[in-house]
């Protein structure tokens, strides 16, 4: 069975506040549902602003001592956390697959990926340097010192329930911040298990606090963090609409924000591309997590001279994908997260068909498998104006657009308010540099579909947000710069 765990105690069904597991203050609870079959998985606290405030109180008490620890001491704790994550990889993957739906092989990969951020920031935390500013006046010495910003509130999405929260918590802890966190309402259990392992690694009481909440109650809980001046930073991954709300609502306390928001990624195949390599890249980038990622290609542009050949090869690959629950070891695509997701995918496909698109493969729900399955789909003859061109589908649907000239596809690729990721394939080295410079996105894949790495800065431009996660740049959003001027030295 999927939930035959080596350590069943990793399935935590309480809030972590000040090092203790407890229910919500008002005793509310809600169900976590397995999207593969619609069955109940667990009950977790339905936290309110009262719980969020208690978490902030704990983080505030813990902050002075934690920020005073040596960077190497914090790094040692993070390294132990990293080791525990890998030691419990199989249990974490099974919890994740059950609440999120992704195949077990993919869930195992996410555990490795999330753990890589903990390891990376354990190494980078001790390397936060300031600057001695060249002397401007005799008798004065000026320096710039980087310090932890304070309490960080992390709000994460359901599509990568371990990697996204690890990518936010690890840098915050590495530089001496304390954290209050709320994982997505659909997938809290993976994050709560991760928090349990952090406690076992030696993260002190109150340094990491985590609460679960349903959609309605979660708004009130996060709202308390937005209003609380003690919370100095919000880091959020999710929709652009919610990101804009957080920016507006946090303005009264002038918090620092990192916002990784929606995307509408183009994937461009030029006539001189290696078509087999382009298809491999598209399969890797588009069908990861069933297309439920913010960086997966949403619009695939293929130059007219290779359009038919590319479509034929792609259709064969997509039609061969195995769809099924995580209990099926051969499954490559799992269920969508919930019925709303399936309804959105179906609406996008129906709109495209009503405007002249044709189904090459897929294009239907797979009700025989369960309530939340949709067939991997390739649409031919996609055009501007279709919903699939304007909105993020967040599902296993590939609309193929045809283009003639490079300048035309650059214009089309950039014709969106979003700018998170963009991909293109070409054998022309000059074109690689030319197109990379012109595409308006924070992440570019040139002849590569798998771009994620703990060593790389991740984030968007335009309405895809601001701030960067991962890499050495990922520490900057958790630090403030203090200028120190020493006088009377002559």
Automatic annotation (TrEMBL):
UniProt GO molecular function: succinate-semialdehyde dehydrogenase (NAD+) activity
Catalytic residues identified in the record: 260
Keyword Oxidoreductase in annotation: yes
A Pfam family matched in the record: Aldedh
GO biological process, alphabetically ordered: gamma-aminobutyric acid catabolic process
Matches recorded under Gene3D superfamilies: Aldehyde Dehydrogenase, Chain A, domain 1, Aldehyde Dehydrogenase, Chain A, domain 2
Keywords: Oxidoreductase
This protein's record includes keyword Manganese: no
InterPro entries listed in its UniProt record: Ald_DH/histidinol_DH (IPR016161), Ald_DH_C (IPR016163), Ald_DH_CS_CYS (IPR016160), Ald_DH_CS_GLU (IPR029510), Ald_DH_N (IPR016162), Aldehyde_DH_dom (IPR015590), Aldehyde_DH_Superfamily (IPR050740), Succ_semiAld_DH (IPR010102)
Domain Aldehyde dehydrogenase as annotated: residue spans: 26-484
Family assignment from sequence similarity: Belongs to the aldehyde dehydrogenase family.
NCBIfam families: SSADH
Protein's recorded name: Succinate-semialdehyde dehydrogenase (NAD(P)(+))
């Amino acid at each position: 069975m999927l939930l035959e765990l080596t350590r069943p105690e990793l399935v935590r069904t309480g809030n972590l506040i000040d090092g203790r597991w407890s229910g919500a203050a008002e005793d509310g609870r809600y169900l976590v549902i397995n999207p593969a079959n619609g069955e109940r998985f667990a009950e977790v606290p339905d936290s309110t602003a009262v719980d969020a405030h208690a978490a902030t109180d704990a983080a505030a008490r813990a902050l002075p001592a934690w920020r005073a620890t040596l960077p190497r001491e914090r790094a040692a704790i993070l390294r132990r956390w990293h080791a525990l994550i890998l030691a419990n990889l199989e249990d974490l993957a099974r919890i994740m697959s059950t609440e999120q739906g992704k195949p077990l092989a993919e869930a195992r990969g996410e555990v490795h990926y999330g753990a890589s951020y903990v390891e990376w920031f354990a190494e980078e935390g001790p390397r936060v340097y300031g600057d001695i500013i060249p002397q401007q006046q005799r008798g004065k010495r000026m320096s710039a010192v980087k310090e932890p910003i304070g309490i960080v509130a992390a709000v994460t999405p359901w599509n990568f329930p371990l990697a996204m929260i690890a990518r936010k918590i690890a840098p915050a802890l590495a530089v001496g911040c304390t954290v209050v966190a709320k994982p997505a309402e659909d997938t809290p259990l993976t994050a709560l298990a991760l928090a349990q392992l952090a406690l076992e690694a030696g993260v002190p009481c109150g340094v990491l606090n985590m609460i679960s909440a349903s959609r309605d109650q979660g708004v009130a809980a996060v709202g308390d963090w937005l209003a609380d001046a003690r919370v100095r930073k919000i880091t959020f991954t999710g929709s652009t609409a919610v990101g804009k709300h957080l920016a507006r609502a946090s303005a009264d306390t002038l918090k620092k924000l990192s916002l990784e928001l929606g995307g509408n990624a183009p994937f461009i195949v030029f006539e001189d591309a290696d078509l087999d390599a382009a298809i491999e890249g598209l399969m890797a980038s588009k069908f990861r997590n069933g297309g439920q990622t913010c960086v997966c290609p949403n619009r695939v542009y293929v130059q007219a001279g290779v359009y038919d050949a590319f479509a034929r090869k792609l259709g064969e690959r997509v039609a061969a994908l195995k769809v099924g629950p995580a209990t099926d070891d051969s499954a490559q695509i799992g269920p969508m997260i919930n019925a709303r997701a399936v309804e959105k995918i179906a609406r996008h496909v129906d709109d495209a068909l009503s405007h002249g698109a044709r189904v090459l493969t897929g294009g239907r729900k797979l009700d025989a498998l369960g309530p939340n399955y949709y067939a991997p789909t390739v649409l031919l003859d996609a055009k501007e104006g279709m919903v699939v061109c304007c909105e993020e589908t967040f599902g296993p649907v590939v609309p193929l657009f045809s283009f003639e000239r490079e300048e035309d596809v650059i214009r089309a690729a950039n014709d969106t308010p979003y700018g998170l990721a963009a991909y293109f394939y070409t054998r022309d080295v000059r074109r690689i540099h030319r197109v990379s410079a012109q595409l308006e996105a924070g992440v570019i894949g040139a002849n590569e579909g798998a771009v994620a790495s703990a060593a790389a800065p991740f984030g968007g431009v335009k309405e895809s947000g601001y701030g960067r996660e991962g890499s050495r740049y990922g520490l900057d959003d958790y630090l403030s710069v203090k200028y120190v001027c020493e006088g009377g030295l002559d």
